[in-house]
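In response to the reviewer comment on reproducibility (Comment 2.3), we provide here a single inverse folding case reported in full, input and output, so that an independent group could reproduce the run without further information from us. The structure tokens appear first.
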């Protein structure tokens, strides 16, 4: 009996590893296609003519196409939190529109949406994991775990961060009233195996065919006692920026909900595209997911006025919600990280502080509000920042998570 159990577990772990590798391949192909499409639309085509309002034209067209596509196919990707809730609540995720969902997730990214790819991809992967688990004898009883493993592998492949992939799906939010879930050994092993295979596959693909994933590094630190004295105020500033994101999310959910119920999804996505295009025409940093913009700002920080960086970061927080709630479905991790870095750089230039330190603390607090998972925030930001700032990142993420968690409980 024990031998059968051991053999079944071994087969299941191998299946998880294989799933992690396949997931990494899907993510890599999706990101490569996204990069090619963005280059074609935003670099190749505009090189043939000079039109100042090109972003308005392209984003509006993108909104119209997206609305028509969603109306015809009914394929609308879920946000990451919605995916996780469905996995925990229903122990099921639909997989009958996987290819249609891939296209629906890709369109807003190609047309400049201020969103990340993780939300759309996660729903696709979870659906595939459910389908695969339901067709494998040894995995049928572990389908919920397999779907969560798929989320871990997807986040790992997108951000090239195995620790984040594990922490994001296993860490309890600080504002939840549910008791912490026990992480069983088998569940942890399956997650680790899938994440390792996903990491290795992405590495091999990048080495073989070129390309990179994840977030850029922000280096060169000069942290003095002045910066340390500013640590808590910077964390509070990041928390306020996070509250702007949360408040705008609630308001825009109601606003675009009324638009969609009264005028339909096409009007909603077109309006979202128009707003995106107008903002992007005058402040290009607010467009796209943000990881490339972080590199641009870091390398050319002296070319940007502090107010441009701060305002771009604050505006992008709102614009990300405009995109998501209007129907340009996607994730918020990449955009929010850019917002924190941009605001941090702007504050550093105004106050004469170390730019990397300001960016790290403000970004950690901002993500702490939106994610409420301090450990996941910390391991994610270690991709960008040096380990020397780790205590400040953890402190800022924990404080902002705690503050917003208490506010949420008071509202309830």
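Designed residues, in position order:
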């Amino acid at each position: 009996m024990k031998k059968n159990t051991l053999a079944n577990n071994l087969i299941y772990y191998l299946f998880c590893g294989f799933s992690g590798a396949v997931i990494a391949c899907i993510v890599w192909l999706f990101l490569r296609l996204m990069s090619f499409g963005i280059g074609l639309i935003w670099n190749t085509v505009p090189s043939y003519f000079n039109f100042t309002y090109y972003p308005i034209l392209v984003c509006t067209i993108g909104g119209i196409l997206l609305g028509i596509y969603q109306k015809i196919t009914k394929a609308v990707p879920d946000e990451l939190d919605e995916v996780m809730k469905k996995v925990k609540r229903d122990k099921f995720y639909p997989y009958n529109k996987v290819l249609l969902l891939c296209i629906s997730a890709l369109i807003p990214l190609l047309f400049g949406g201020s969103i990340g790819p993780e939300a759309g991809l996660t729903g696709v992967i979870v659906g595939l994991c459910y389908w695969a688990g339901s067709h494998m004898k040894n995995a049928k009883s572990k389908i919920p775990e397999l779907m969560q493993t798929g989320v871990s592998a997807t986040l790992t492949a997108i951000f090239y961060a195995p620790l984040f992939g594990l922490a994001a799906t296993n860490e309890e939010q600080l504002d939840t009233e549910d008791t912490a879930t026990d992480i069983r050994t088998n569940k942890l092993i399956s997650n680790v195996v899938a994440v390792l295979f996903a990491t290795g596959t992405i590495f091999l693909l990048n080495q073989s065919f070129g390309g990179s994933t994840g977030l850029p590094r922000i280096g060169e630190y000069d942290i003095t006692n002045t910066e340390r004295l500013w640590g808590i105020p910077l964390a509070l500033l990041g928390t306020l920026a996070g509250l702007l994101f949360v408040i705008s999310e609630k308001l825009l959910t109601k606003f675009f909900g009324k638009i969609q119920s009264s005028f339909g999804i096409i009007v909603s996505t077109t309006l979202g595209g128009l707003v995106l295009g107008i903002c992007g025409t005058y402040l290009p940093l607010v467009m796209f997911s943000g990881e490339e913009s972080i590199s641009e700002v870091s390398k050319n920080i002296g070319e940007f006025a502090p107010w441009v960086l701060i305002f771009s970061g604050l505006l992008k927080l709102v614009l990300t919600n405009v995109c998501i709630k209007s129907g340009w479905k996607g994730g918020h991790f990449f955009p929010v990280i850019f917002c924190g870095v941009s605001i941090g750089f702007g504050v550093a230039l105004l106050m004469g502080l170390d730019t990397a330190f300001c960016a790290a603390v403000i970004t950690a607090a901002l993500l702490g509000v939106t994610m409420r998972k301090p450990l996941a925030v910390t391991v994610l930001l270690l991709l960008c920042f040096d380990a020397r700032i780790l205590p400040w990142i953890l402190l800022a993420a924990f404080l902002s998570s705690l503050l917003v968690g208490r506010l949420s409980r008071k509202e309830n």
